[in-house]
């Protein structure tokens, strides 16, 4: 368990979160405060929302900000990805009407403090979402996008990376994301 984490039921977490000034993740009973973001994190998040908004609209999907909670029922985790894309009707969690259980794409912009989790245990949780087709990691330190996409047989994931000057096809949205459009001028 994370140092300083509070332990409580999910119902108690929801009540606590409703009155909290900052966001918290729920990890198998542990409530963990989320770290604040940097200017670069916020800049990238905004640019990604614009780019994904255009792709999502064309695909009949919605882009949700980091205020949207995602509930991973299979593992008991709730988290706030940097961006979430839902196609079709949103399916709320049975125990949390504000949490989404059916994202098609999840985006994280890892920081030095979250990178290990975003690539490891949090990614393991996301893989348990049956609806998830793509997971995108967006570097704050260099022009680099990393995309994990679920293969058709749903048991395996493929990995692709794109850097400055390249583009990345996003099959889940039927479009392409240009690295230079995401990073733009600093």
What does this entry look like structurally?
- Helix content is 25%, strand content 34%.
- The protein folds into two domains: 1-34, no CATH class; 38-183, Alpha-Beta Complex (tt1808, chain A), CATH 3.90.1570.10.
- It has a seven-stranded mixed beta sheet with strand order 1-3-2-6-5-9-8, with helices on one face.
- Strand 11 (134-138) and strand 12 form a beta hairpin.
- The protein has 186 residues and is an alpha+beta fold.
- The chain has five helices and 15 strands.
- It has helices at 10-19, 39-59, 115-119, 121-126, 179-183, and strands at residues 6-7, 24-27, 30-33, 61-64, 69-72, 77-79, 83-87, 92-93, 96-100, 105-108, 134-138, 144-150, 157-163, 167-170, 175-178.
- The mean pLDDT is 91.
Low-confidence stretches: none
Structural class: alpha+beta
How much helicity do the residues have?
Answer: 25-40%
Count the strands? 15
Major beta sheet summary: 7 strands, mixed
CATH architecture of the largest domain: Alpha-Beta Complex
- Mean pLDDT equals 91
**CATH homolog superfamily of the largest domain:** tt1808, chain A
Strand order of the largest sheet: 1-3-2-6-5-9-8
Question: How much of the residues is beta strand, in percent?
Answer: 25-35%
- Termini distance? 37 Å
- Please give the CATH class of the largest domain: Alpha Beta
Query: Rg to the nearest angstrom?
Result: 16 Å
Could you please say which CATH topology of the largest domain applies here?
Answer: tt1808, chain A
Listing every helix as H and every strand as E from the N terminus to the C terminus, the arrangement reads EHEEHEEEEEEEHHEEEEEH
What's the number of domains?
Answer: 2
Total DSSP helices: 5
């Amino acid at each position: 368990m994370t140092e300083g984490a509070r332990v409580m039921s999910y119902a108690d977490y929801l009540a606590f979160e409703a009155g909290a000034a900052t966001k918290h993740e729920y990890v198998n009973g542990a409530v963990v405060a989320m770290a604040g973001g940097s200017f670069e994190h916020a800049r990238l998040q905004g640019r990604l929302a614009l780019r994904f908004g255009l792709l999502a609209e064309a695909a009949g999907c919605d882009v949700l900000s980091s205020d949207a909670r995602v509930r991973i029922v299979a593992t008991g985790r709730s988290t706030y990805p940097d961006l979430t894309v839902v196609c079709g009707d949103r399916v709320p969690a049975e125990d949390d009407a504000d949490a989404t259980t059916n994202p098609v794409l999840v985006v994280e912009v890892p920081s030095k403090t979250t990178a290990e989790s975003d690539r490891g245990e949090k990614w393991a949780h996301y893989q348990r979402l049956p609806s998830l087709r793509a997971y995108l990691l967006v570097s704050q330190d260099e022009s680099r996008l990393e995309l994990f996409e679920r293969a058709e047989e749903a048991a395996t994931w493929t990995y692709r990376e794109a850097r400055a000057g390249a583009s990345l096809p996003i099959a889940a949205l039927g479009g392409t994301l240009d690295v230079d459009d995401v990073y733009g001028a600093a």
